[in-house]
Q: What sequence folds into this?
C-alpha cells in the first residue's frame, strides 16, 4: 500500500457533504454550500439511480494489463461489465491500441452468504493470475460481499504475497453510498495504492488528463503551448500508470471524476493540480491554459497562443452567435460536467435557463476547483437549478414548463426525454468533443443542425405518450412534490 494512503476512501456524503436534492438558482446553491445552510432533502419516491460499483469498475476494467475479480453475484458483474466494456472499446480510437477486458466474477450464491465467500475469492484471484498473467489484480466488492462481511483486504494481502504482484481490494459496495461517483474515488485509490510509483524523473512537458473514452482533443490544445497530454486511466498500461507521478501537473474533464486522485498526486508526489475549471468554453479554456502555463513555465507564449486561437475561430463563432440570438438551452448531466456544457452554451450566445445535475458536492477536494461558483460568476445566476439522482419524472415537468430551444445531456438515453417533448437534444457522450476552442465550434455546429431539424422532434412529440398520470403532468403539480427538505443535518 502506498505511503500515506488508506485502504479505502471515505464516502462522498461524509468527505464532500454531497447532496442529492436541491431546487433554486445557482447562486443559492453556491452560497448555501459555502455557508452550509442547504437543507438535506430526502426523496419519498425514486424512479431510478446508479451504483458506485459501476463507476469503480469502468475505470479499473480498462487498465491494459490488470485483471479484475468482481466479488459479486453474476447479475451485478454482468450489468456493469457489459456496459462499460462497450464504452471502453471506444477508447481505442484515442490510442489506436487493442482493448483487453480481463475479468472474473466469483458468482456469489445463496450458500456463500451463509458460509462466506473468502475461499471462492482466493480461487478466483488465483484463476485470474493463471489465465491472464496480469501485473495487478483488483478485487471489487458488491452489496452481497459487504453483507457477508468477507475480509477482502486480508485475502488481497494474502494473495499478493503468494503471487508476487499487487492485489488490491477496491471497496465499492452500492449500499455504502448513495453517490455513485464515490466509485471513482474508490478505483483511483486502488490505482494510487497498487500502480503509481515515486517519480524516477520529471517530464516537464507532460500533463496528466484524467478522462473517459473519446477523441483526442487535449493534445491539439496543449500543443499550442508545447505540451503533451497523458490520458489516464482508460486503456493505459500499468507501466504508464506508474509514471503519472512524473508529470508537470494534473487536470481532469470535471471535478467529479478525478480531483481526488489529482489532489493525492500533489500531496504525495508534488504533482500540482491545475486549479482552474476544465477547458470548456472560451473563458474557461483561456483560464485553464493560463494555469497550465504557469505550472509548466510557458507564461511567455500562452497569451499569444490564446489570441491566435480566438482569432482563428472568430468568424464561425460570430455566425453561430448570430444564429443563437434569443435561443434558450437547458443542461441535464452529471455534476460537474453539466457546468462545463453550460459554459460552452453561454459562450455560444445561448441563454442558459436551467441546469439539472445528478448530485452536488457542497465541499471540494480543492476549493479552487468549484465549477458551480464559476458558472455563477461567468454564465450568471441561472434561475432554474436542481439536483436529482436521475429522476426523469422531475425533469419532464421542468422541461414542459420552461420549453428550451435545445436540451444538452451527457449520458445515453437522456436525449430521448427531449425528443418526446419535441425539444432538439444533443447527447455529449464523448466528453472530449466540446473541449477547448475547437470544441466550442463543434458543439455549436451540432446544436445548430438540431435546431434546423426541429420539426422532426415535434413529430416525435406528437406520437409519444409518457407513463405518468394526468395529475403528475398537470402544470399545477410541483415537480418537487416528492422531495422532503426537513432534515438540516448531513447524514
A:
Amino acid at each position: 500500500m502506498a505511503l500515506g494512503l488508506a485502504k479505502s476512501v471515505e464516502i462522498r456524503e461524509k468527505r464532500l457533504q454531497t447532496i442529492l436534492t436541491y431546487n433554486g438558482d445557482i447562486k443559492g446553491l453556491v452560497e448555501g454550500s459555502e455557508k452550509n445552510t442547504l437543507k438535506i432533502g430526502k426523496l419519498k419516491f425514486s424512479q431510478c439511480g446508479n451504483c458506485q460499483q459501476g463507476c469503480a469498475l469502468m475505470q479499473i476494467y480498462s487498465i491494459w494489463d490488470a485483471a479484475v475479480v468482481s466479488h459479486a453475484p453474476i447479475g451485478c458483474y454482468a450489468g456493469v461489465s457489459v456496459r462499460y466494456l462497450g464504452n471502453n472499446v471506444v477508447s481505442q480510437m484515442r490510442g489506436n491500441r487493442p482493448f483487453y477486458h480481463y475479468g472474473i466474477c466469483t458468482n456469489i450464491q445463496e450458500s456463500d452468504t451463509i458460509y462466506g465467500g473468502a475461499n471462492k475469492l482466493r480461487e478466483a484471484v488465483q484463476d485470474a493470475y493463471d489465465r491472464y498473467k496480469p501485473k495487478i489484480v483488483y478485487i471489487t466488492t458488491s452489496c452481497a460481499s459487504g453483507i457477508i462481511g468477507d475480509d477482502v483486504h486480508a485475502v488481497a494481502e494474502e494473495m499478493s504475497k503468494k503471487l508476487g504482484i499487487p492485489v488490491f481490494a477496491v471497496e465499492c459496495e452500492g449500499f455504502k453510498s448513495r453517490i455513485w461517483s464515490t466509485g471513482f474515488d474508490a478505483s483511483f485509490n486502488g490505482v494510487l495504492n497498487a500502480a503509481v510509483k515515486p517519480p524516477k524523473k520529471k517530464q516537464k512537458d507532460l500533463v496528466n488528463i484524467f478522462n473517459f473514452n473519446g477523441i483526442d482533443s487535449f493534445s491539439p490544445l496543449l500543443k499550442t503551448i508545447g505540451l503533451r497530454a497523458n490520458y489516464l486511466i482508460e486503456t493505459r498500461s500499468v507501466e504508464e500508470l506508474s509514471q503519472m507521478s512524473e508529470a508537470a501537473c494534473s487536470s481532469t474533464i470535471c471535478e467529479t471524476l478525478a480531483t481526488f486522485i489529482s489532489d493525492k498526486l500533489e500531496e504525495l508526489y508534488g504533482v500540482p493540480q491545475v486549479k482552474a475549471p476544465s477547458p470548456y468554453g472560451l473563458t474557461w479554456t483561456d483560464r485553464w491554459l493560463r494555469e497550465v502555463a504557469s505550472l509548466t513555465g510557458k507564461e511567455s507564449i500562452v497569451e499569444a497562443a490564446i489570441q491566435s486561437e480566438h482569432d482563428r475561430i472568430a468568424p464561425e463563432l460570430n455566425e453561430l452567435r448570430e444564429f443563437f440570438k434569443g435561443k434558450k438551452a437547458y443542461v441535464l448531466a452529471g455534476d460537474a460536467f453539466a457546468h462545463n456544457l453550460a459554459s460552452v452554451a453561454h459562450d455560444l450566445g445561448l441563454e442558459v435557463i436551467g441546469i439539472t445535475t445528478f448530485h452536488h458536492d457542497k465541499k471540494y477536494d480543492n476549493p479552487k476547483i468549484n465549477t458551480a461558483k464559476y458558472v455563477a460568476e461567468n454564465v450568471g445566476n441561472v434561475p432554474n437549478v436542481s439536483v436529482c439522482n436521475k429522476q426523469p419524472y422531475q425533469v419532464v415537468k421542468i422541461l414542459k414548463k420552461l420549453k428550451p430551444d435545445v436540451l444538452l445531456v451527457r449520458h445515453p438515453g437522456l436525449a430521448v426525454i427531449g425528443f418526446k417533448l419535441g425539444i432538439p437534444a444533443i447527447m455529449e457522450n464523448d466528453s472530449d468533443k466540446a473541449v477547448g476552442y475547437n470544441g466550442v465550434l463543434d458543439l455549436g455546429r451540432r446544436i445548430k443542425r438540431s435546431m434546423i431539424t426541429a420539426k422532426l422532434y415535434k413529430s416525435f412529440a406528437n406520437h409519444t405518450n409518457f407513463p405518468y398520470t394526468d395529475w403528475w403532468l398537470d402544470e399545477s403539480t410541483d415537480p418537487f412534490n416528492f422531495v422532503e427538505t426537513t432534515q438540516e443535518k448531513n447524514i
Notes: The chain has 22 helices and 15 strands. The first strand starts at residue 22 and ends at 24. Confidence is low (pLDDT under 50) at residues 487-491. Residues 170 and 426 are 34 Å apart (CA to CA).
